[in-house]
Design a protein that fits this description.
The chain folds into two domains: 63 residues, Winged helix-like DNA-binding domain superfamily/Winged helix DNA-binding domain (Arc Repressor Mutant, subunit A); 145 residues, Four Helix Bundle (Hemerythrin (Met), subunit A) (Up-down Bundle). 30% of the residues are buried. With 225 residues, the chain is mainly α. Helix 2 crosses helix 3, helix 4 packs parallel to helix 9 and helix 5 packs antiparallel against helix 6. The mean pLDDT is 90. Strands 1-3-2 form a three-stranded antiparallel beta sheet.
Length: 225
């Protein structure tokens, strides 16, 4: 996940919110960590007003918990939220991948193949941070190719706990080979226009997190609700 950079016409308020959100999603601000307006103001070199506004927005997205008299804490990863996001993605992406078998053009198929090839290169070099970005891009390409980017963006709004779990796996010993090989299989099935096979492969792929979350919870018990 790339470091968020302020755009030329972007307000300090929006920049502060997006940067803080990225730090939470990347686990630079670990689950359960106490943070303050003063500290974040100094770290981000902005005034406390946009920090305060960002805290409120992030609490509404359940990434921060604000307790009067106690302070503000990065929310723990909620496995119920993870499962809800996984369930939503599985059921929508099974339909998306079926449609992708019919509508993706040569350019979009090339993007998909290039993406998987880059994933395989990152796997060999053990560049898991970039691999995670490519993983997200793989799925986004499918939504874009099916003219369903608005649905993708809507899913992202409830994907925060799911994303943090996936970032957490970067530092684990879980098998990235399985993830990449599943992406290659899905890409091949789309190329073959095998809608039934692609749907089954996507369902299996998105159920992988259900297996991993138990292992991650054991490895990082302080990060989970």
């Amino acid at each position: 996940m790339a470091v968020y950079e302020q755009k030329s016409k972007e307000s300090t308020r929006d920049y502060t919110y997006k940067l803080l959100k990225e730090k939470i999603l990347k686990l630079d601000l670990r689950p359960g960590r106490k943070i303050s307006e003063k500290e974040m103001s100094e770290v981000l070199t902005v005034s406390r007003t946009p920090i305060r506004e960002a805290f409120l927005r992030l609490s509404q997205e359940e990434l921060l918990e604000i307790f009067p008299q106690r302070g503000t804490f990065v929310s723990l990863i909620d496995l119920d939220h993870v499962e809800e996001a996984r369930f939503l993605r599985e059921n929508i992406e099974r339909a998306i991948v079926r449609q992708a078998c019919e509508v993706l053009d040569e350019e979009e198929l090339f993007q998909l193949e290039t993406n998987v090839t880059m994933q395989e290169m990152c796997l060999k070099k053990e560049n898991y941070a970039t691999l995670l970005e490519l993983d997200e891009e793989f799925h986004r390409i499918l939504f874009a190719g099916c003219n369903k980017l608005r649905i993708w963006n809507t899913i992202q709004q409830m994907n925060n706990h799911f994303i943090r779990l996936r970032v957490l796996r970067i530092g684990s010993n879980l098998n990235w080979n399985v993830v990449v090989s599943q992406h290659r299989n899905i890409q091949d099935l789309i190329l073959q226009k095998d809608a039934d096979g692609a749907e089954a492969a996507m369902a299996e792929h998105l159920q992988l997190v259900a297996i991993e979350k138990g292992e991650l919870e054991k490895a990082y018990p302080d990060y989970f609700k």
